[in-house]
Amino acid sequence: MTSRLTGGDRPNNMPFSVVMPALEMAQETGKLVSWRKKEGQSVSKGEPLLEVETDKAVLEVECPADGILAGVSAHEGAVIPVGQTIAWIVRPGEAPPPQAAPTVVATSASIARPAPAALNTPEPAAAASAKISPKARRLAKERGLDVGRLQGSGPGGEILASDVAAVAVSQSSAAPAGVEPLSSIGRLMAERTTQSWTTVPHFFVVREVDVSSLLAARDLLGPTIEKAHGVRITHTDLLVALVARALTKHPRVNASWSGDGIRLNPDINIGIAMAVNDGVVAAVIHRASTKNLGEIAIERRDLSERAQAGRLRPPDIAAATFTISNLGMYQVDAFSAIINPPQAAILAVARIADRVVPVDGQPAIRPMMTVTLSCDHRVVDGVRAAAFLNEVSEAIGQPEVWLEQKVE
């Protein structure tokens, strides 16, 4: 996945069109959050040009060419179908070609107070014959909306997912006091988790792990890495490194479910669940098994800072093959996480707390942590899940040994 707006080289003596990009699979529209450049300003290929809100996050999108930003026809808050031209990159003295205004599916204001025309009185067979995208039909069914009463804004009057969302938000805004409408990211996160929970056969494997060696490794390695790279390592950094190395021995846990069956992923890309203002995003450490602890810590810090600032780019949330969700900093004793399809598993990490445990037949106090592995039973069976979690436990018990294992 790329953050470029359009592909290919710029034709000679021709303006370069800036289109609403498709940043995710099955994306139909994008919400223009902001322009990073103003009309008439010089722009350079590869620098941030605009911000687009998708199903998962607000993402920075790069400029596709050098030149001057001109002919801006879409404004902040507008929801635009993918592929429509919203501006041009021109040479000095060059004028953008004339164009019709882009189709605006919705704006921030119209989503808050949609026009009454969003609903029509249906004919008896309207719902069955309505032209509607598969995603929009699914969303309408989940919200209990009558497809035959929806007005589409897509080509030929096709009903898009954004049309369904606009009506749903309209109904939310008319709800009694005390009901808080979801943001678009929060709403779509709710849809994704609902779809995962209702379609993926989850099962869970739980393990309590002694983290004495993990804490010792952080104390030992932390000062060296901080001095060399200027970043403090966290428990999450250590877990990303150790889990990635464990996954090299358990490729089925790193696999994905597809319509054709099980797909083994060539790379180990670890998603880290991060809380943002209006939901949770999973920023990705790509090829984590090939990176040392310092590299992982630097990348995790960068992703976290940009996630909080709403500056993630499309590659930052793409192609995760396994996810870690750590709520230990919130003093959670244990929890089970919902899988992010098409991934086959997610590891839920709870807090570290001193507990009395048997050591060599005698009671002793040890820092313990509960980890819960959620698995898709279509891809990972119970034996594979238990074996992988046992491998992770062994890695946590001997981090100094496992962190030497760098797979090229």
Helix-strand layout with pairing:
Layout: E1 16-19, E2 29-35, E3 42-43, E4 48-53, E5 58-62, E6 67-70, E7 79-81, E8 85-90, H1 108-112, H2 126-129, H3 134-143, H4 161-173, H5 184-199, E9 202-210, H6 212-229, H7 235-247, E10 256-258, E11 261-263, E12 270-276, E13 279-285, H8 293-308, E14 322-326, E15 345-359, E16 362-376, H9 382-397, H10 399-402
Parallel strand pairs: 12-14, 14-15
Antiparallel strand pairs: 1-8, 2-4, 2-7, 3-6, 4-5, 6-8, 9-16, 10-11, 12-13, 15-16
Helix pairs in contact: 3-4, 7-8, 7-9
Question: Percent of residues in helical segments?
Answer: 25-40%
Distance between the termini: 23 Å
Number of strands: 16
Radius of gyration over all CA atoms, rounded: 24 Å
Low-confidence stretches: 109-127
CATH architecture of the largest domain: 2-Layer Sandwich
Which class of secondary structure composition applies to the elements?
alpha+beta
Outline the biggest β-sheet: 6 strands, mixed
Explain briefly what this protein structure is.
With 408 residues, this protein is of the alpha+beta class.
Any overview of this molecule?
The protein has helices at residues 108-112, 126-129, 134-143, 161-173, 184-199, 212-229, 235-247, 293-308, 382-397, 399-402; strands at residues 16-19, 29-35, 42-43, 48-53, 58-62, 67-70, 79-81, 85-90, 202-210, 256-258, 261-263, 270-276, 279-285, 322-326, 345-359, 362-376. It is of the alpha+beta class. The chain folds into three domains: 16-90, OB fold (Dihydrolipoamide Acetyltransferase, E2P) (Beta Barrel); 108-192, no CATH class; 201-402, 2-Layer Sandwich (Chloramphenicol Acetyltransferase), CATH 3.30.559.10. A hairpin with a 4-residue loop joins β4 and β5 (58-62).
